[in-house]
């Protein structure tokens, strides 16, 4: 077993001890989805089946929601003595971080599966072909990878668990200011501009395009570029913070 | 293989303009217990962090197990085990899983790893609690688990940073026995402590650390020759009695803090105490209170630095 696999095994055990952390990520987006589809969404003027429109946005929100658990578990590793034990052992320095990212991705993907299950019951009917399905899954894996790395960096940078818990809040708010729930075109000018130029809009649009069988080239390229950029920043930032904190 | 397990020279470390280590030189022979003695804030943990590759010194060289800590970090890490001041256990794993994690990280094959884990649980009397999460363990159990985790893979050099601080007397005794057993197996131990008694009982050599400098180094016997030995404290009812006592006890000195107390050098043994009291009795000097005082860290500090350890930590 490599060091990273050993560490992942440890993180998976942590998650299994506390399964609520997985479902927390899914429950709020599910409640929101129920509210928007059955309560508020009726008033929206959106072409087609609204549940088809909102599901991609809720999938991304699910990823963001699960990240507070990641920030917390990274931070508690750093603030408790265990990290010093790992540091004085002859093991790969990045194994601890890689394992956190992998565990975070696993939790996100499970929560997404639960959410998609509920969406299907509510009448979500994706029109994606097989290659588009592969594209959508690929994009989701890439997005969870990128968001997990940036969250690991934030968790490492946080002084204590309390601030680590708060640090992922912006990541939860950003999808609301994107085209997750309603198209950006319908928003006030300032908000629309923000929505157009923040990473979640292209990521959600790309995912929506792939799932509804109408992939949008520009959005997909922008989404992949954003994800790669976020992943790179998160990775570099994580490693440098990790080295600095004794 | 040289006979030195740890060699450090000219270690310096400062945080901003606060100097924590101010030129530390030390040498620890393989298979011995070396104790770094000092009050809180003297720089003990910083020294351990530098010796164990956790922290880089600003200046100076360190060789551990014959390897340079800066250029051959991996080789040093493979040779050492470290138990820090605060138990470094994974709270969300059981005792057994914590040990298994160490076995996996030491890349032990499955069967060997399992055997080592069970042996250590047995050795530290943790078999019964092996299935419980470490978060439910008492302070003493956490320390035991922590040390057990350090022993996975049989490191040749073990660093123990204040291993008994905060332990109850029974757990402390168990820790001492374990340390002695390890040295019996040929392991080198680098131990920090704030207790002179602990260093005295365990260590072959003691170094006294004060404000980032080593103010004394030697065997416990050598060190104790530098500090005032044990003495008898006699308390008297008033000035008249004190004056009478001073006339008959030529080697007595007044206590610095209490006017009614005299300190008389004595080994504290029954014979010498009896002689002393008989001597006072024959001269009809009444003693109100009597106690035997053995030297502690405060005495060491007073003798070596002219200050008490209390003042040092402030």
TrEMBL record, chain A:
Top-level lineage group: Bacteria
Places the protein is found: Cell membrane; Membrane
Pfam families for the chain: ABC2_membrane (PF01061)
Residue ranges annotated for the ABC transmembrane type-2 domain, each copy included: 20-245
Leader sequence segment: none
Name of the protein in question: Transport permease protein
Keyword line: Antibiotic resistance, Cell membrane, Membrane, Transmembrane, Transmembrane helix, Transport
Alphabetical list of PROSITE patterns matching this protein: ABC_TM2 (PS51012)
Subcellular location, principal: membrane
Family as reported in the entry's similarity comment: Belongs to the ABC-2 integral membrane protein family.
Bilayer disposition of the protein: Multi-pass membrane protein
From TrEMBL, chain B:
Compartmental location: Cell membrane
A GO term, aspect molecular function: ATP binding
Coiled-coil region(s): none
Keyword Acyltransferase: no
One Pfam family it belongs to: ABC_tran
Signal sequence, renumbered to the chain: none
Tree of life domain: Bacteria
Annotated TM spans: none
Membrane topology qualifier: Peripheral membrane protein
Principal subcellular localization: membrane
Domain ABC transporter: 6-236
Family annotation (PANTHER family): ABC TRANSPORTER ATP-BINDING PROTEIN (PTHR42711), DOXORUBICIN RESISTANCE ATP-BINDING PROTEIN DRRA (PTHR42711:SF19)
Stated name of the protein: Daunorubicin resistance protein DrrA family ABC transporter ATP-binding protein
Organism, as annotated: Asanoa siamensis
Lineage, uppermost ranks: Bacteria, Bacillati, Actinomycetota, Actinomycetes, Micromonosporales
